[in-house]
C-alpha cells in the first residue's frame, strides 16, 4: 500500500525533520520520501487541517479481559478502541481467567494479536495466579513476548516477594510495573478519604495507602538497582517522592491516568459509578499537583488504565459497583483538553517517546528508510465519545457525550492506514 501524508507537522526528537511541515510518502510500510511537496499519482492521500504526526502512541496499562472475561472486552475490541484513540502499541494486563503467568498464556496473546493492525504486548504476572505468594516464570514469559511484569489490579503486597522480583528481572534487564495501593490500608474504602467522603457518608481510602507503598517500592528499587515503573499515581506527595527518587538517579518512572488529571473527588457528589476508580480520585489539590507534574516533566507517561466493566457492574448502588473506566479512545483528548499549554514535544513525550525508552521498544524515528508506525492527530479539533462511536465492548466512561478538544485522526501501522 502506498500512502501520502500531506503537510503534517512532524514531532519527533530523533528525526532530522522535527518541527517541520512536510509531505511523507510511505510504500509497503516504509517511509521512502519526506519533502516539502511530493507528487504521487497512485498513493492514498491523507490530509487535514492543522495535521500533526508523531511516532505511534504507546499505552502501557490496559485491560483487554481476554482470555476468560470476554463479555467485558476482547483483544479485538480492545485493539479497535486503541486504534480509535490513536495508539499503535498497547500493553495489556495479566488479570484474566486464566492469569497470564506462564509462557503458554503469553504465546496465546501474541498469536491472537498477530493479525491485528496494532501491536498488543502481554504484561506477564509477577506472581503465580496473581496470588502474591510465589514468583511466576518471568524469564520464560519474557522469552515468549512479555513486555514487562505486573500483578496489575492486585499489586504485590509482600515486601520480601517484591524484592525477589526486582532482583529476578535484573538478569534480563526487565522492568516491573506497580499500581501504588497498600491493600491493608483503607481496604473497605470506596473513594478518597477526606471531606467529600465524610459528606457523602462513604468509607474512604486514605492517601497513605498510596504513599506507603511508593516509599517501600522506592526503597526496594534503591536496594536492588532495578527498574520500576509506578503507574496511576494520584497524590501530590507521590509526585514528590518519585521526583526525589529520580534526582537520586534511581531507575524509577511513573505514569498518570487522564481521568486523574480531569476529575477530583468533588466530582463524585452525584455518586457516578463511572468515577469509582482504584486508585481513587483524590482532592482538587492533588489533581492540580498532578497537572503541574505533567507540565514540569515529572510524569513520564500517560497510561489509559482502560478497565472495561459491563453494565451490571456499573448500573447499581455505588457500594456494589466495580472500579474502573474505559479510557483508550479519550486519553489524548482529555490530556490535550486539560493541558492545552503543553507543547507538541511534551504531548509526544507523554504518549510515545518516553514509554518507548522506558520499556525498550525497538528504536524508530520519522525518517527516510524507517518503518512507518505513526499517529496522525489534531490538537484543535473537537471530539466526542458517544455510544455510537465507542469501539470498546463496555461503555463505562464518565466522558460519554462530553466534547473535548483534540482528536486522533488516524494511525499508520503494519502497512495500513486506518482513519478514525
Please characterize this protein's 3D structure:
This protein has 420 residues and is an alpha/beta fold. It has two domains: 2-52 and 368-419, Urease, subunit C, domain 1; 57-358, Metal-dependent hydrolases (TIM Barrel). The chain is built from eleven helices and 18 strands. Strands 1, 2, 3, 4, 5, 16, 17 and 18 form an eight-stranded mixed beta sheet that branches. Strands 6-7-8-9 form a four-stranded parallel beta sheet. It is globular and about 65 Å long. 54% of the residues are buried.
Considering the chains and any ligands shown, give keywords for the structure.
about 425 residues, Urease, subunit C, domain 1, four-stranded parallel β-sheet, about 25% strand
- Form type: globular
Share of β-strand residues: 15-25%
* Count of individual beta strands: 18
The pLDDT mean sits at 97
Name of the top-level CATH class of the largest domain? Alpha Beta
Q: What is the C-alpha radius of gyration, as a whole number of Å?
A: 21 Å
In CATH terms, the superfamily of the largest domain is Metal-dependent hydrolases
* CATH architecture type of the largest domain: Alpha-Beta Barrel
Number of helices: 11
* Number of domains as seen in the coordinates: 2
Unreliable stretches covering 5 or more consecutive residues? none
Q: How are the secondary structure elements laid out?
A:
Elements: E1 2-10, E2 21-27, E3 30-35, E4 44-46, E5 52-55, E6 57-62, H1 75-84, E7 87-92, H2 103-112, E8 119-124, H3 138-143, E9 148-149, H4 159-169, E10 175-178, E11 191-192, H5 195-200, E12 204-205, H6 208-224, E13 227-231, H7 236-247, E14 252-256, H8 258-262, H9 284-295, E15 301-302, H10 331-338, H11 344-358, E16 374-384, E17 403-413, E18 416-419
Parallel strand pairs: 1-4, 1-5, 6-7, 7-8, 8-9, 10-13, 11-12, 13-14, 14-15
Antiparallel strand pairs: 1-2, 2-3, 5-16, 16-17, 17-18
Helix pairs in contact: 4-6, 6-7
Amino acid at each position: 500500500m502506498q500512502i501520502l501524508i500531506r503537510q503534517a507537522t512532524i514531532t519527533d526528537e530523533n528525526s532530522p525533520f522535527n518541527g517541520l511541515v512536510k509531505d511523507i510518502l510511505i510504500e509497503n510500510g516504509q517511509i521512502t520520501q519526506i519533502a516539502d511537496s511530493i507528487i504521487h499519482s497512485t498513493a492514498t492521500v491523507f490530509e487535514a487541517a492543522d495535521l500533526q504526526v508523531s511516532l505511534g502512541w504507546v499505552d502501557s496499562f490496559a485491560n483487554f479481559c481476554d482470555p476468560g472475561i470476554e463479555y467485558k472486552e476482547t483483544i479485538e475490541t480492545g485493539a479497535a478502541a486503541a486504534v480509535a484513540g490513536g495508539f499503535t502499541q498497547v500493553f495489556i494486563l495479566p488479570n484474566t481467567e486464566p492469569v497470564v503467568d506462564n509462557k503458554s498464556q503469553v504465546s496465546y496473546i501474541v498469536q491472537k494479536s498477530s493479525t491485528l493492525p496494532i501491536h498488543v504486548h502481554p504484561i506477564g504476572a509477577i506472581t503465580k495466579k496473581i496470588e502474591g505468594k510465589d514468583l511466576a516464570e518471568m524469564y520464560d514469559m519474557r522469552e515468549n513476548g512479555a513486555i514487562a511484569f505486573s500483578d496489575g489490579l492486585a499489586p504485590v503486597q509482600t515486601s520480601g516477594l517484591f524484592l525477589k522480583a526486582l532482583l529476578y528481572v535484573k538478569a534480563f534487564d526487565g522492568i516491573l510495573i506497580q499500581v501504588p495501593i497498600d491493600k491493608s490500608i483503607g481496604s473497605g474504602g470506596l473513594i478518597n478519604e477526606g471531606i467529600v467522603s465524610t459528606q457523602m457518608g462513604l468509607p474512604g481510602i486514605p492517601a497513605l495507602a498510596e504513599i506507603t507503598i511508593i516509599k517501600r517500592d522506592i526503597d526496594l528499587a534503591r536496594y536492588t538497582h532495578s527498574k520500576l515503573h509506578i503507574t496511576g499515581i494520584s497524590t501530590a506527595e507521590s509526585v514528590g517522592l518519585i521526583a526525589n527518587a529520580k534526582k537520586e538517579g534511581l531507575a524509577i518512572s511513573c505514569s498518570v491516568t487522564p481521568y486523574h488529571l480531569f476529575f477530583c473527588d468533588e466530582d463524585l457528589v452525584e455518586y457516578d459509578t463511572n468515577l469509582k476508580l482504584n486508585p481513587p480520585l483524590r482532592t482538587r489539590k492533588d489533581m492540580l499537583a498532578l497537572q503541574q507534574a505533567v507540565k514540569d516533566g515529572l510524569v513520564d507517561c500517560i497510561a489509559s488504565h482502560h478497565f472495561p466493566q459491563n453494565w451490571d457492574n456499573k448500573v447499581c448502588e455505588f457500594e456494589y459497583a466495580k472500579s474502573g473506566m474505559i479510557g483508550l479512545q479519550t486519553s489524548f483528548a482529555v490530556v490535550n483538553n486539560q493541558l492545552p499549554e503543553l507543547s507538541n514535544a511534551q504531548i509526544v513525550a507523554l504518549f510515545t517517546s518516553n514509554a518507548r525508552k522506558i520499556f525498550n521498544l525497538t528504536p524508530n524515528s520519522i525518517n527516510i528508510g524507517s518503518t512507518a508506525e505513526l499517529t496522525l492527530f489534531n490538537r484543535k479539533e473537537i471530539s466526542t465519545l458517544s455510544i455510537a462511536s465507542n469501539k470498546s465492548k463496555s461503555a463505562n466512561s464518565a466522558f460519554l457525550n462530553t466534547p473535548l478538544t483534540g482528536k486522533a485522526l488516524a494511525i499508520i501501522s503494519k502497512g495500513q492506514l486506518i482513519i478514525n
